[in-house]
Specification:
The chain has 434 residues and is mainly alpha-helical. The protein has two domains: 3-82, no CATH class; 111-432, no CATH class. The protein has 16 helices and seven strands. The strands form three sheets. Strands 4-5-6 form a three-stranded mixed β-sheet. A two-stranded antiparallel sheet has the order 1-7. Strands 2-3 form a two-stranded antiparallel ribbon. The chain starts with a helix and ends with a strand. The model is unreliable at 110-119 and 151-174 (pLDDT under 50). It comes from Dioscorea cayennensis subsp. rotundata (White Guinea yam). Residues 236-353 form the DUF547 domain. This is LOW QUALITY PROTEIN: uncharacterized protein LOC120268297. Pfam families: DUF547 (PF04784), Lzipper-MIP1 (PF14389).
């Protein structure tokens, strides 16, 4: 091989090596870029390697990667917003938990006050004991209620991001329409007792005011301890009825103070199971008191003998208008006495019907879910329930005339269609007597 041929061959090989080296460099850059794109955000890889894209990546792939980078950037922004919202929610829950932990600790500290420091009243019967218990709890809830002017000031200072929550029912006025039915078409009428109740909602319930309740909390604990030793065997039907209504309502109020306010209807049901009290040596929760004593559900065997000692013998349907679970759909809270419980239940029934049932100008009838649930205690169907409602209202009630107009002016089918059942609302709310 001549010298010229040798140099030419060498030059060709060098050119091929350079070309292959260039291809290798491009492949290595592409490999690094793709690996980086897999393990790092496209937003970063796109901005840092943009200058090398045109030489190693086809145009269509460049467009696709650019779109993916934009999408990923939006995802990152949304993830940051979600994390911020989670942090805010966590801080709010932590603050609320601290409030109720403080409330529970303060309650436990306060109930250790020696009995002699608490003024003792003459309590010699189970009924007087239950009445004093519910009165003391009402007093506590009154003191934990922030006055309206303080709440208004706090609402006006709420940050803009949380202003939407002001539209919740917790901020709605109570005086003219505590059951939220009168504003359906602007109808106004006198609803008596309910109009004068004090409304305690989640937003007006202030655990930080617990220091105002020292004597009341100590008295509640003393009364609860005394319940363990009572005997109901000698009590009359009326006395048992009033006693168990008061104990039912008191057990739930006491559970709110112990465990805080439930956030959902499911947690409310859990709280009803925790709302227990020891009566005569037997621990009963609110659900047991309602269904096995006051509503007298059927039981067999040994359990029936145990409950007969505490039970009423036969159910009283009007307890529907007296049992208060501390929510928007519950009737107003009252104190019931053994001497006059029948008349007190009658008043509670009439005033609940007047406050919770509304008939619009277009003859649309709004009825609470609570009444519809227990319809079979009073009637066979919706039409006969309306007839029963008419029979229970006093002659002077404007609602009575409206019900009669609906009954007389509609067929049974059209009457059923005109009835709308208002949904049950488990959000915390008490209507307290003044």
């Amino acid at each position: 091989m001549s010298t010229n041929q040798y140099h030419r061959k060498k030059l060709d090989l060098e050119i091929q090596v350079n070309e292959l080296q260039a291809v290798l460099d491009r492949e290595q850059r592409l490999n690094r870029f793709l690996r980086f794109a897999i393990h790092e955000p496209l937003v970063v890889s796109h901005s840092s390697c943009h200058s090398c894209l045109s030489s190693v990546i086809p145009a269509q792939l460049q467009v696709l990667l650019a779109e993916l980078a934009i999408v990923e950037e939006e995802i990152i922004c949304l993830e940051r917003r979600v994390e911020d919202l989670k942090l805010c929610l966590f801080q709010e829950r932590k603050q609320q938990k601290n409030y109720f932990c403080c409330l529970g600790k303060t309650s436990q500290d306060l109930v250790t006050i020696p009995s002699q420091q608490v003024e003792e009243k003459s309590i010699d019967t189970p009924n007087k004991m239950s009445e004093e218990l519910i009165k003391s709890l009402i007093s506590i809830f009154h003191k934990l209620h922030r006055p309206g002017n303080q709440l208004d000031c706090e609402i006006s200072s709420v940050p803009r991001l949380t202003i939407s929550c002001i539209n919740s029912r917790s901020f709605m006025p109570c005086k003219s329409d505590p059951m939220q039915v009168l504003d359906i078409d602007g109808t106004t009428r006198n609803i008596g007792f309910y109009k004068n109740c004090i409304q305690l909602t989640r937003n007006s319930f202030d655990p930080n005011r617990i220091y105002l309740c020292v004597a009341d909390i100590a008295r509640v604990q003393i009364l609860i301890d005394k319940l363990q030793d009572i005997e109901l065997n000698v009590s009359t039907y009326k006395q048992k009825l009033a006693f168990w209504i008061n104990i039912y309502n008191a057990s739930i109020m006491h559970a709110f103070l112990q465990h805080g306010l439930p956030q959902t209807s499911e947690k409310l049901l859990t709280l009803l199971n925790k709302a227990a009290v020891n009566v005569g040596g037997i621990v009963l929760n609110a659900l047991a008191i309602e269904h096995f004593i006051l509503r007298n559900s059927s039981m067999n065997g040994k359990d029936a003998k145990s409950w007969r000692k505490y039970g009423l013998g036969y159910p009283e349907p009007n307890v529907t208008f007296a049992l208060c679970r501390g929510n928007w759909s519950s009737p107003a809270l009252r104190v019931y006495t053994g001497e006059d419980v029948v008349n007190e239940l009658e008043r509670a029934k009439v005033e609940y019907l007047e406050a919770s049932i509304c008939i619009t100008n277009k003859k649309k009838i709004f009825m609470p879910k609570l009444l519809h649930w227990h319809m079979k205690d009073f009637a066979d169907d919706v039409v006969s329930l309306l007839e029963w409602i008419y029979s229970q209202l006093p002659r002077s009630a404007s609602l009575k005339c409206s019900v009669m107009e609906c009954l007389n002016g509609n067929t049974k089918a059209s009457l059923i269609k005109s009835v709308e059942i208002q949904p049950y609302d488990a959000e915390f709310r008490y209507l307290l007597p003044c």
